[in-house]
Write a structure and sequence with these properties.
The structure holds two protein chains of two kinds.
Chain A (H helix, E strand, L loop, with lengths): L6 H21 L13 H12 L1 H19 L5 H21 L8 H24 L8 H31 L1
Chain B lengths: L2 H23 L6 E6 L5 E4 L4 E7 L2 E8 L2 E6 L6 H4 L9 E4 L4 E6 L11
Antiparallel strand pairs in B: 1-2, 1-7, 3-4, 4-5, 6-7
Classes of the chains: A mainly alpha, B alpha+beta.
Chain lengths: 170, 119
């Protein structure tokens, strides 16, 4: 059986592959605190969002979580649930952010929103399912600070990539 | 950065300190101390007045100190003294245990959030 693929399908596959590669490379780095991670793979999501729109970004993001977990051996483990929850939250907030009238958000705004939503979603799942202890919430501001930092940096990188790409294509 | 980016950044920067303030200052005060020796039923005791409580465990007598709404292991006949070194329990939910002497103490607040955690 032959599945007909469109140019868009192939583009999404390429970009998802790139995001998965970054995701796996990043998982090799030790984390200073559980839950804190630069989230460089999300840079790809933002670049895709800015250039190809929300639909492609959602595909790339979900494919990254799915394939990344299969390759790392975390599929359907708590790690996977956290990862998926975070990804779904950030995609949802990006969907809203895309609908902002006027000039809207740039890469930095998108990335920051995505990082904060990712962290909040992940944290809520961790709290509801795994560690329902009120003291866990004390970590929340710390994790959000990390999300602010990495989200902003990721957004600046994504912005840099987008402008450079545009220069290449024109 | 677009204007929306800057506004968002400003909102986030203003909200973060509030979150720190919110989550790092409001702690639920403890009202009672729960003490358990071996397999016996736990005893629950109020945190006033200040006093010492002697608990007899399998290897000897542990002394719990209750003072100013806090509690700690003052002394225990165990070799490692992990329980003593865990120091004062200040907030509801905090727990200290002396495993050799099979004694555990925990501060409880008005609304216990969970019975046990399993990883």
């Amino acid at each position: 059986m032959q599945i007909q693929t469109t140019a868009e399908d192939q583009r999404i596959a390429w970009l998802a592959a790139l995001a998965i590669t970054i995701h796996i490379l990043e998982s090799a780095f030790p984390s200073p605190l559980p839950g804190i991670k630069p989230g460089l793979a999300n840079v790809i999501t933002i670049v895709v969002l800015v250039q190809f729109g929300w639909r492609s970004a959602a595909w790339v993001s979900l494919l990254r979580v799915l394939c990344g977990s299969l390759l790392l051996g975390t599929f359907l483990t708590p790690t996977f649930l956290l990862s998926l929850g975070g990804a779904v939250c950030s995609i949802a907030i990006l969907w809203l952010a895309c609908r902002l009238p006027g000039r809207g958000f740039g890469p930095v705004g998108f990335s920051l929103l995505a990082a904060l939503a990712h962290m909040t979603g992940q944290f809520t799942i961790a709290w509801l399912l795994f560690i329902p202890h009120p003291a866990l919430w004390r970590l929340f501001p710390v994790l959000l600070t990390a999300a602010l930092l990495f989200g902003t940096v990721g957004g600046i990188i994504a912005g840099g990539i987008s402008t450079r790409q545009r220069q290449c294509s024109t | 950065m677009t204007r929306a980016d800057r506004v968002l950044m400003a909102i986030v920067l203003c909200t973060l300190p509030l979150l720190y303030l919110h989550f790092w200052t409001d702690q639920e005060p403890a009202t009672v101390l729960r003490m358990q020796v071996a397999d016996m039923d736990p005893t629950v005791t109020p945190l006033t007045p200040d006093r010492h409580v002697q608990l007899a465990g399998p290897i000897g007598e542990s002394i719990i100190e209750i003072r100013a709404g806090q509690a700690r292991f003052l002394d225990s006949p165990c070799p490692g003294k992990v329980c003593v070194h865990s120091g004062w329990l200040r907030e509801a939910g905090q727990l200290a245990a002396c495993l050799p002497n099979r004694i555990s103490i925990q501060l409880l607040g008005n609304r216990p959030r969970f019975d046990a955690i399993n990883f």
